[in-house]
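Recap slide: histidine kinase, sequence and predicted structure.
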Amino acid sequence: MVGTLLTVGILIALALEHFLPNNHGLVIAICLLCVLPISIITIRAELERMLSLFRALTGTVTSYKDGDFSFSLHWPQNDELSDLVAAHNDLGNVLRQQRLDLVQRELLLDTMVQNTPVAMLLVSESGPIVYANLAARQLLHQGRKLEGHNLQEILTAASPALLEALARGGDGLFTTREAGADIDEEEVYHLARRSFHLNGRKHELLLLRQLTMELRRQEVQTWKKVIRVISHELNNSLAPLTSLAHSGAELVRRGQTERLPQILATIEERTRHLESFILGYARFAKLPAPRLEAQQWAPFLDQLSEQVVFRLIGEPPAEACAFDPAQLEQALLNLLKNAHESGSPPDQVSLEVRQLHEGVRLDVQDRGPGMSDAVLTNALVPFYSTKRSGTGLGLALAREIAEAHGGRITLNNRDGGGLTVTIILPQG
């Protein structure tokens, strides 16, 4: 544009110089009067095109803010503005591709959430249901849409077990059964609840998972394992008893009775072992609810030391604690017996009782080989045992007792070898 104006000005000046050779000032004035209007018109036209481009840029940016990335610009000239337009169009292409990828991921996620067997409800603080997947609609509203409905209105037709589980707060299991249904048709669900803030407002996510089939499969597997363990133990005991009984009868027939006392003693030992085995299973299966009574630690530990050897670390708490003395004694006997059977030196089997802010902590420690990661994971599972003649009930019974008291039990390997089994009892 500037080159064009200069060319026009030079041509006008040459023409005037030819007609007015001696009047240079007049030539310049006439040139300015001719070129200036042309310059103003040309610059104004160029500025209008640039302003139009800037308005278009503003419009596309506004469209990007609204989530619309379908616009692009065109600039015919090959100058700096064309580079700006090309960069702007490239940005739009990138945003458009990212938006497409995001939509695809959201579609995939929504498909997965909608078709998961876990019923999902997202509820706002004020009560309306914000989101519900297909499983939630089938469970609570006969397949109809739930969004926009108030949760309390929907729950009026829900089972009393679900209402009770929601009223308790937190996570937990509950069982539902329709009126007139057989007990075999009971359905077991797990309720999980999580609260969080979404768009500055508090929301709660409810997850309802049906566990009936999984629990039945686990129940069958557990019974199979119980039967295998009991069958193995019975065979190990009954086979020698049968052989010994036959040998005793044969000796009596021959009149060789001098070995009968040894045979009868072996039969008695195997019978007592079998009786202890069966009683252990019965005790685990029929563990009663603990009878909590305020107990002083010193006399309780003195009585425990009369039944099993251990080293008491530190002084026990002076404050009384509410627990069932018979059950806690049984749990500690199991743990101390395991510690001695681990191969630990007897003087390294210890018990420590400490007062905590949340309750009382009991640590049973040994200097045996400890446990591998796999054993630590499964040690508290009923009937799991790494011992050849073990029943897998000692630690499981200790866990049942601790949890029945409202406490918990943990296992950890010690630095330098050995194991620490910790029972935490709430302060009663």
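Residues 180-184 have pLDDT under 50 and may be disordered.
The two ends are 93 Å apart (CA to CA).
(End of recap.)
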